[in-house]
Design brief:
By secondary structure, this protein is of the alpha/beta class. The chain folds into two domains: 36 residues; 226 residues, Rossmann fold (3-Layer(aba) Sandwich), CATH 3.40.50. It is 39% helix and 11% strand.
Length: 268
C-alpha cells in the first residue's frame, strides 16, 4: 500500500512538473511572437525536393500574401532496408530546391516555440511507409500540437476513383496505403484533387473509423484541386510558377471553421 501511495505521489509530482514546463513553454512562445512575429506564420514542410512541385504554387500564393510570414523547412528522412528497419544515414536535400526558395534548416527553427498558425505538409505516412520514413519529430501526430491548422496536400495525383461504381477496383484497396494513414487522420484540412476523390477519401476514412465519424471527414476533406494539375506560366524560374487559387480556398475554409468555433463558444 505504501508503494502505491509513493507511486501516486511521484505521478502527481511528475504531472505538476509537466504542467509547469508547459506553462513556461507557452510563455517563451508568446514572448517570441511579441518580439519577432508581427504576422501569423505559415510553415511549409516539404518531403523531398523532387516533390516540391506538389506545393510550390500554394507556397507562391502564400508568399505573396502580405498578411503572413512564410517559411520553407525541408524535412529530414531515412530509407528503410529490406526488412523494414530504418537505415542510419539521414537524407536531407535542401540544396536541391530551386534557388528562389529561401530555405530554413530544420535544426534552426523550433516548431513548438514558434507554434505557426499553419503548417502545410505533403507526406502523410509517418511510420506507415515501407520504403522511407521522415524523422519522427516531424510526424503529423506531433505537428498537430504545434500549430493551429495542420494542412495536408498530397505529393502526388492519382487516376480518378469512383468508389461507388467500382468498390472492388484494386485502386480502392490501395487507398489504405495513402488515405487511411496518420497525415490524413491528424490533419485539420486535407486537400484532394477532385470531388470524385473527395468522395473516395471520405468513404475510405469512414469505413476505417465508423459511420459516427463520417461528418468529421466530410468537413475535413476538401476538393480544392492539386498544384500538379495547374498550368505553369510562360517563362522560367519563379515567374513560371502560377499563383494557386488553392491558397485562398485553404484560408477561406479555415476562416469558416474559426467563425463556427467562435459562434459555438459564444452560445455556450
Amino acid at each position: 500500500m505504501e508503494a502505491v501511495k509513493n507511486s501516486n505521489t511521484s505521478g502527481n509530482l511528475f504531472n505538476r512538473h509537466l504542467a509547469e514546463m508547459d506553462r513556461l513553454l507557452r510563455g517563451v512562445r508568446e514572448d517570441i511572437h511579441k518580439k519577432t512575429a508581427k504576422k501569423p506564420e505559415v510553415v511549409f514542410l516539404p518531403w523531398r525536393a523532387e516533390n516540391w512541385d506538389s506545393m510550390e504554387s500554394i507556397w507562391k500564393a502564400a508568399k505573396e500574401d502580405s498578411a503572413f510570414d512564410v517559411s520553407v523547412i525541408p524535412l529530414p528522412w531515412y530509407y528503410r532496408d529490406e526488412e523494414g528497419s530504418v537505415k542510419e544515414q539521414v537524407q536531407y536535400d535542401a540544396e536541391a530546391f530551386p534557388d528562389y526558395v529561401e530555405i530554413i534548416d530544420y535544426r534552426e527553427y523550433s516548431l513548438p516555440l514558434h507554434h505557426p498558425e499553419m503548417i502545410i505538409i505533403n507526406n502523410p505516412y509517418d511510420q506507415c511507409n515501407y520504403t522511407t520514413v521522415i524523422d519522427p519529430f516531424f510526424w503529423a501526430k506531433q505537428l498537430k500540437g504545434w500549430t493551429e491548422h495542420l494542412v495536408y496536400v498530397p505529393w502526388f495525383v492519382t487516376d480518378e476513383i469512383d468508389i461507388e461504381q467500382s468498390p472492388e477496383d484494386p485502386a480502392v484497396y490501395n487507398m489504405r496505403y495513402y488515405v487511411t494513414v496518420p497525415g490524413v487522420v491528424h490533419s485539420d484540412l486535407v486537400v484532394v484533387q477532385s470531388e470524385l476523390m473527395r468522395t473516395a477519401y471520405i468513404k475510405a476514412l469512414t469505413d476505417m473509423s465508423g459511420e459516427e465519424y463520417a461528418e468529421v471527414w466530410n468537413k475535413k476533406v476538401c476538393a480544392f484541386g492539386s498544384p500538379l494539375r495547374e498550368e505553369r506560366n510562360p517563362g522560367e524560374g519563379y515567374e513560371a510558377i502560377p499563383v494557386s487559387p488553392i491558397w485562398e480556398q485553404i484560408k477561406g475554409r479555415i476562416r469558416e471553421e474559426e467563425t463556427a468555433r467562435e459562434d459555438n463558444n459564444g452560445n455556450q
